[in-house]
Each structure stands twice: as structure tokens, then as C-alpha cells.
């Protein structure tokens, strides 16, 4: 286990001291995860997802983007690319309860971490819905999982390219993965 400069596990106080260098700093069980600054396809997909989720959002929920933290305890803080939270669970600084939905938009450097490690941690924390979006220019995908039995995710939806991604949870929304990155194509 890597430790901080004081020889102990990283905690949320250490996160507050991280440089503002465009990277994303997160904690899982006191381990520091550092992600590279996102590229345009990632940001395009995040922006489109935020708009679509915000338009569909119920009054009891809020849609937020990274770097807003989901802080389970002092050794665990994740920063999903997009999250949906119950309004009543939010504080001005972070979300101390599991979000209703956590969305990770992957890049080549984060796909394995997002699809396995972070997905498993979200399940452990009780996040009911998890989406993984890959904004690959040739084959964009969106996949949704729902937490079953409080412990494991079951895949409930997957769309590729122009296929329509439809889900009813946490509220009805639909889009195609290609729509999420349409802004990367030059205007006609």
C-alpha cells in the first residue's frame, strides 16, 4: 500500500492538498488514484450527458459533474464524471451518501480502472445504478448496470454507435452513444 509523506494511508485531508494540475485525484481505501487530464472526446461526452440527464432529472434529484466528490469516509472519495444524487443527501462540499447514479466516461488510460476497480467500489458503496460510457470516435458505447441484491451489478442496457440507449433508472432518459460525441465532428 502506498502511503503519503507522513507514512500513513492517504485520506480526504490529503486530497485537499493535491495540486490543481488538471488531474483527478481520488481515494479508494486510502490508496491514491490519479487520472490524467481528460481529452476532448471525454469532455464532450460528459457535457452531453450532463445536459441530457439534467433535462430528464426529477425535482428530488440533482445532476453534478466531476470533481464533485462522493465521500464515503475519510479514506474513500470518488469523483464520478457525472453523478445523480438525491437533493436531500447533498452538502455544499460533497456527497456523503451513495449517489443514485454514477457515470464514468472512459478514456484509453482509464477504461480498465473504470470498468473493474471503480465499478466494484461503487457496488460496495451501494450505488444503485452505474453507467460506463466509452467515447471512442469509431465505436462509442454506453452500458448500464443496476445493483442487484445490494452486492453485484447486473447489466441492464448496452448501446453501440447510433443504437438508442434507453433506461428508466434513476429516471427515463435515452440517447445514442454517437450523439454524445457528435460535437467532435466538423459542421457540415
From TrEMBL:
Q: Does the keyword Hydrolase apply?
A: yes
Task: Mention any Pfam family matching this sequence.
Answer: Uma2
A single Gene Ontology molecular function, please?
Answer: endonuclease activity
Give the record's keywords alphabetically: Endonuclease, Hydrolase, Nuclease
What CDD domains does the annotation carry?
DUF820-like
In this chain the Putative restriction endonuclease domain maps to 14-176
Look up the coiled coil feature and give its residue ranges.
none
Cleavable signal peptide: none
What InterPro entries has UniProt attached to this entry? Nuclease_put_TT1808 (IPR012296), Restrct_endonuc-II-like (IPR011335), Uma2 (IPR008538)
Under the heading Gene3D superfamilies, the entry gives: tt1808, chain A
- What is the protein's name according to its record? Uma2 family endonuclease
Q: Name the lineage.
A: Bacteria, Bacillati, Actinomycetota, Actinomycetes, Pseudonocardiales
Amino acid at each position: 500500500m502506498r502511503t503519503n509523506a507522513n507514512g500513513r494511508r492517504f485520506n480526504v485531508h490529503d486530497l485537499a492538498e493535491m495540486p490543481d494540475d488538471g488531474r483527478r485525484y481520488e481515494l479508494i481505501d486510502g490508496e491514491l488514484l490519479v487520472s490524467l487530464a481528460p481529452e476532448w472526446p471525454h469532455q464532450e461526452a460528459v457535457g452531453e450527458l450532463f445536459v441530457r440527464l439534467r433535462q430528464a432529472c426529477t425535482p428530488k434529484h440533482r445532476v453534478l459533474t466531476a470533481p464533485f466528490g462522493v465521500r464515503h469516509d475519510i479514506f474513500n472519495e470518488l469523483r464520478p464524471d457525472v453523478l445523480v444524487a438525491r437533493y436531500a443527501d447533498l452538502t455544499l462540499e460533497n456527497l456523503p451518501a451513495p449517489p443514485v447514479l454514477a457515470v464514468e466516461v472512459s478514456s484509453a488510460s482509464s477504461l480498465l480502472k473504470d470498468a473493474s476497480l471503480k465499478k466494484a467500489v461503487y457496488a460496495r458503496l451501494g450505488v444503485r445504478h452505474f453507467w460506463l460510457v466509452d467515447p471512442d470516435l469509431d465505436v462509442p458505447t454506453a452500458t448500464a448496470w443496476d445493483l442487484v441484491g445490494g452486492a453485484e451489478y447486473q447489466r441492464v442496457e448496452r448501446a453501440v454507435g447510433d443504437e438508442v440507449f434507453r433506461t428508466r433508472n434513476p429516471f427515463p432518459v435515452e440517447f445514442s452513444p454517437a450523439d454524445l460525441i457528435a460535437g467532435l465532428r466538423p459542421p457540415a
